[in-house]
Specification:
Layout: H1 13-21, H2 46-62, E1 76-78, E2 86-88
Antiparallel strand pairs: 1-2
Length: about 90
């Protein structure tokens, strides 16, 4: 459904369509500080999924507040929709 918070209700329709076609993805953080966002589709290759995951990780790390101390990303799990999560070591994501 269209929603002004997600940018789908706008007066600049051309810009909104261009952003969606370019692959713009919004992410939000829930109360437990977990980020739920898609990084690809079943048809994507492994390299495309890794590239998208790296891009998401970079965006998250750039959004880190300067006042945040210690380890910023404490756990990572990747899963398909309704699939089991595969845990990754957050210290070895590079």
């Amino acid at each position: 459904m269209p929603n002004p918070k997600t940018g789908t209700v706008t007066m600049d329709i051309e810009k909104a369509v261009k952003n969606v076609k370019a692959g713009q993805v919004e992410y939000r953080v829930d109360r437990q500080a977990a980020i739920h966002t898609p990084i690809g589709k079943v048809s994507f290759t492994e390299d495309q999924l890794v590239e998208n995951f790296d891009a998401l990780r970079d965006v998250i790390l750039r959004a880190r507040p300067a006042s945040a101390k210690g380890q910023y990303i404490k756990s990572v799990a990747v899963s398909a929709t309704f699939g089991p999560g595969i845990k990754l070591d957050p210290l070895n994501l590079d």
